[in-house]
Structure formats: structure tokens, C-alpha cells
Protein 1
Amino acid sequence: MNSAAAADDIPCHDWQGVPITAATCGGCAHAELRRAGGCEPGRSCMQDAYARRIDRFFRTHRALANQHLAHPYFEVRAIAARHADLFRLPPLMADPDETVRLQVALRVPQRLLRQMRADPHREVRIRVAHRIDVADLASMIDDPDYQVRCIAAQRLPEALLPRLLADADLQVRLEVARRIGLPAMWRLLEDPAPEVRRIAAQRLPEPALGLLAHDPDWTVRWEVAGRAAEPVLTLLLHDAEPEVSRHAAERLAARPAAVVMVKTVERAEATHG
């Protein structure tokens, strides 16, 4: 490979496996560019199978990207799509390779991006879910891929989050639990996963924490012990899990003496009428 010693120690071959050398450059459409020092086998070459060398070529010669959007090698089409004029991209929305469609999804305007919400490949739909206007994201709530639904749970308006409360995937429900507000937050208490109920214990209004004081998972009760007021803390002092009872005892012991005194007086007054 003479001066064309391969950068990154990867041999120079085109997408069909044919070695690329200075001698083969004469048959390239950009032979004049090569003679002028504008590209170099092994470093910057759009005929190479190695994506990094293709990218170097198009980053240096962006004006040539439009010419290669129909190239038979998907990497060339995908990298050219990063630099081509926007009005040349719509035909690539139906490209047979998802790598090309991924690049298109990063650049097309919203009116075209909406057409890619049902792309057959999950990675493309994930890109779409990240970019699409929130007003057009609701239709992706029922996407078959959990990651797409996770993104929807992160970006959708709070009012639409209840639709994802019963999602089959835990990661989606966790995203919902972190954002959902009252009154829908009450439904978190019914979730079968302790991870979701732990978030409920972290976010519910303090007066409602008693509802989780008998949760079957001790980590949920531990979260309750970290936020609850005295009546619930007193109950948790007798919890079967030592970590929970210890946490409740530490919270009670750390309460300001003045607060404890007020509570003592209130109890005495209640007892003696």
C-alpha cells in the first residue's frame, strides 16, 4: 500500500473486498482530487469500506455528498447523508439499510420525521422519539420497543403518563413513577415491582406514607421510614426487618427536642381532657 499505509492499522479494501492502492485510484471518479492531494488511500477515501476514512473524505469535501446518496455501499450512503443537502434526503427515508435511515432521522424536518415513527428498526424509532415534537410523540406510546416507550415516558406531558402506568416493562414504569403527579400517583402503590413502589415512597405526600408502612418489600418500608412522621415511625420501630426499625429509631432520635416536647404535652392534654 506504499504511502497508503492504512491509518488505524486496518487494510484498505473497498466495500467488495478489492484492495485499494495508489494504482487503483486512477479508475475512481475522484482521480483528479487524488492527484491534487484532496484524498489519500488509507486515510481519506470514499471508496474504502472503513467508515472512518469515508467520513474523513466527506468532512473535507461536503459538496460531493449529494453525488453519492445512491452509492451501493450503505456506509457511503449513510455518511454522505450527514453532509448532503436536506432536500436530497427524503428518498433515503425508505433506504433498505437502517444505518442510512438513522442518519436521515437526525436531520429531516419535523414534517418528514413524523413519517418515520413506524420505521421497522428500533434504533431508528429511538432516534425519532428523541427528536420528534412532543405533540407528535403520543402515537409512540404503544411502540413495541421498551426503549422507545421509555423516551416517551421521559418527554410526554404529565397528563399522558397514566397511559403507561401498566406498561409491561419495568424500566418504562420507573420513568413514569419519577414524573407522574397526583392523583395518578396513587396507582403506583399497586405496582407489582418494589422498585416502582420505592419511588412512590420517595414522592408521595408525607401524610400518605402510612399506606406503604406494611408494604411486603422491606426496601419500600425503609424509604417510608426515611420520610414519615412520628406515628408511622413509631409503628416501624417494631418492623421485622432490622434495617427498617433501625432507620425509624434513628429518625425519631434525631427529631428536635422541642418537637418531641410539644408532642408529649399534646398527649398529656388529650389524656387528662
Protein 2
Amino acid sequence: MELFFSPLSCSLASRIAIYEAGLEAGFHKVTLSTKRLDDGRDYLSINPKGQVPALKRNDGTMLTEGPAVLQYIADLDPQGRLAPKAGTAARYELQQWLNYIATEVHKAVFYMIFNPASPPEVKAFARDQLLPARYRFLSAHLEGREFLLDSFSVADAYLVTSLNWARPAGVDLRAWPVLAAYHKRLSARPAVARAVSEELALRDAA
């Protein structure tokens, strides 16, 4: 399979999941501002949405949308560690967290902060009003817990990815000690550290 990604964006969660599962994959860097791959190809010809992640499966079909890609990767994990079994109550809880992070944290907050078209007042509202409420909710859930579910899952891969965006957005995670500790703990996981290190190098080389 092949992952189309942009360094340190939400597609980082998919790279983390691939490494956690010990899967083989190819990686193709997308420049989102131009919708081009490093080899010059038009990314829109591969994914008309123009967003990442996109996953080309071994049968040649494409899968898009982060929560769907993450669950697909999790279901390929030979040891079944990254997601509860489909159809179980725990799997629906995983989907709940994936959707919360995607809609309430990623799109509602950080997309608005980092979108160059967002007016300053919109960026400030997302950072100073919306984000604290989300972080309080996440902190309350993670108090006394190591992970969002009973063990590490692809939802944690997505959450730790989004927490990486706090500093660039001008947010100090130390205001939420539970989240700061969670971020530090998960950033030390070998798969997370490897994925972040590789994508930092790619971003800095651009």
C-alpha cells in the first residue's frame, strides 16, 4: 500500500499507525498548496479532494478520510492491537473518538487557525474560545488514564498528532497538565517518535 501525506499534517497519524502495526508501505509527499507530488504529478488526479491522507490499497483502490484510513490500517495489524473488533461496543467508542478529534478538534479549531483565509478574529475565536473547551473535555476523560481506550489505538495516533499543532498555533499545553503529560508520554513511543522525526526532516528540507 501507498500513503499520500503532507509532513506533520493529520496524515502523520496514518504513518504512526503503519509503524505501530509493523506494516510495509510506500510514502508519497504532497505539497498541499500546489496539489503536486514530489515527482511533479498532479495530486488531484489521484485524490480529487486534494486532501491527505489518501491510501492506495494493494488492489489499486484509493481510500480517503483520516478516520477511515486509520481504521483500515488498524484492521491490517496482524496482532489486532490498534482497534477493537468491528461490531463491538469498543469499536463504536473508537469511532466516537476518531470523529470527535476530526470534527471538533481538527476541523473546528486547527483548520481555522492554520487556514490563511481565516480572518484574525476567527483564528482568535478558535484558539481562545473553542480549543479550551475541547481540551477540558479531553483532559477530563484522560485523567487517570493512559490512552483514550483501554490500550493504545489509532485514536491516540490521531490525538497525539493534533496535540503537535498546539505550539505552532500559539497554545501552551502546560495549561492542561493531563494533556501535556499524555503528549509527552505518547511522543516517546518508538513508532510516534520515528514518524515525527522523519516528517520533521522532510518539512525542514523543503
